[in-house]
Amino acid sequence: MSYSQTALDQLEHGQLDDFKKSYQKALTNDSDDMLYSLAEELYSLGFSNYSQTIYRQLLKKYPTDDSLKINLAELAIDADHDDQALNYLSQISTQSTEYVRSLMVSADLYQTQGLFDVSEQKLLEAQRIAPNEPVITFALAEFYFNTRNYRKAINLYLNLIKSGTLEMSAVNLVERLGVSYAEIGKFEQALGYLEQIKPIHMTSDVKFELAFTYFNLKDYQKAVETFVDLRDSDPQYSSLYPYLADSYVELKQIDNALKTIQEGISIDQFNEKIWQKAGQIATMAGEDEMALNYLKKGHEIAPEDMEILSLLSDWYVTHQQSQNNLKLLEPLVKDHVFDAHLAYNLAQSYQDTGDYQKAAKNYELASHELNDNPDFLKHAALFYRENGHIKEERSYLKHYLELVPNDLEMASMYEEDEDY
């Protein structure tokens, strides 16, 4: 038995001291082919530093062997020694039989550095040189998948599947294709692929995509079943809870929706979107104070989230808590943050507190974007009527009645003002 094989056997049995001795003997006694195989085995087992020593020893003996340079570059990348990796890769010429492989390794390196354009160009160059190589097609597909360029990924995955390749590097290509279709909103195509995946290959991410696809196809019962299956197998998958809750809402099971989103809160207390959804569902359930507490918590976690802030402001307006609403929104005015809906809410609160000038200013600001919102137009008209500004009142009323012609009360009011 060679020293290399002895070293591997000792490593397998946890005999580390004996392994190190056999490893040293292998370096000086075993053939180069045996050492190369030993380096590969050690790398696969996670003993990269020992592999590196072997490759360096071999490179000194075979300085023109580009495969050794690429192996050393890969080890350098794993150790975050990017400059060292680039040094090895730069030594490989375009004429080398290992050039395509060097392009693939370079692409990985540049992707880890966040240089996605450079990484893509390396892969495309490899594809031009070897257009029919499945490994390159797969690498390019994975690049596009991981950079969320799903449309390009889809074409590449389809090409591989049509050629009979359903799995590569332990990646299920049918799954990838289904997820990619779901991510671009082609849910019917996504479902056709996602439903083919066997339960044993159903990871949490795939279950989520399948449930998400059912949800978007409005098959809420299947969405619930799949989200519940995901929750039961992986309760820490916090993204599922808002969608499961929404699925219950669509099925008019508000109690289940509220219970679900409360479970989500217990799993992830720092996800502002779960608090937001909790506030919305508590409102549906008629739990107004609970809704307020949830929205305030979400705002506390993410004070710059305009959607949560808007919902909290709406709660204050609906419950006529004008001072709380002004306290919430006035800092935005000082920071010159404008949102038409929030300007409308400000206008109502200023109106309630008797500040006509600020109310009028915010009604005017909001009108530029909410001029097709009947609720806004009606409130603005009544505000100007209350303050004796008939011209402005009639302008808003006219536009309102164009949108809601059957509101007889407002139509009568408009007719009453014709003589002014």
From TrEMBL:
SMART domains to which the protein is assigned, alphabetical: TPR
Keyword Transmembrane helix: no
UniProt key word Ribonucleoprotein: no
One Pfam family this sequence matches: TPR_6
Source organism superkingdom: Bacteria
Keywords: Repeat, TPR repeat
TPR repeat start and end residues: 204-237
Xref: PANTHER family: TPR REPEAT-CONTAINING PROTEIN PA4667, TPR REPEAT-CONTAINING PROTEIN YPIA
Name this polypeptide is given: Tetratricopeptide repeat protein
Lineage of the species this protein comes from: Bacteria, Bacillati, Bacillota, Bacilli, Lactobacillales
